[in-house]
Design brief:
With about 260 residues, the chain is mostly helical. The protein contains eleven helices and three strands, in the order ααααααααααβββα. Helices cover about 60% and strands about 10% of the residues. A three-stranded antiparallel beta sheet has the order 1-2-3. Strand 1 and strand 2 form a beta hairpin. It is flat and about 65 Å long. The chain starts with a helix and ends with a helix.
Amino acid sequence: MSFNILDRIKFFYKKDFSTESYFKKELRQKLSGLQSTLNISIKNHKYFIKALTHSSYLDLHPELKKSNERLEYLGDSVLSLVIGKYLFDKYPFEEEGFLTKSRSLLVNRESLVAAAESIGLQNFILYNQKYLKDTVEGIQSILADALEALIGAIYLDQGIERAEKFIISKIVKPLEEGDSFLVDTNYKGQLLEFTHAHKLSNPSYVVTKEEGPAHNKEFTIQVFVGEELMGTGFGKNKKAAEQQASKIALQKLNSNQ
């Protein structure tokens, strides 16, 4: 049987080289790797495909229909419940303020990003690089959101006990060593509390410099209390620069007390 050139091309693409085939192969590989990483036997793959799907990826594969945003909402609730119960049981003599602050430190973006990186979650997420361009801030946001969505998927697929085990081992325990999670690194919030307590003007932040290409920017931010410059911070995003400036301002204000 002879094939003309058009038939050969059609036959070649029918084998397993179509965009759809590669897409399905990519999903299988990512799910297999994720299952191994989590050390679980996935029952419903749809939960985890959804957990890995960032909204930007729908532009490439609209057949997925929905992103991980709903699972992120669920995972956030499960995360809050598990950590709230853990702290409640571990610190029976602490007041509500301590428990609330400790929980917020355990579930902040930095903690979630660190946990996501520890399991290599960035290797499994489905997103459109065209729009996010792999910026540090963009990737960290995707990682934090995807981790919460993953927690939601584990909860639905494996139950609350397995979700609790994942949260404690990957988020709480690494931060609990040396009680590092009790160290409040929200210097911007601390600075605001300090100025209120001492009846000073609210801190104000000014971006004085923005350098570098879009995917690797460096921000310089100054913080003022009233008219006085109290600190200058640098960072890959505005939040990091503000935190550094606030930390310097707190040190300066405390030394003047």
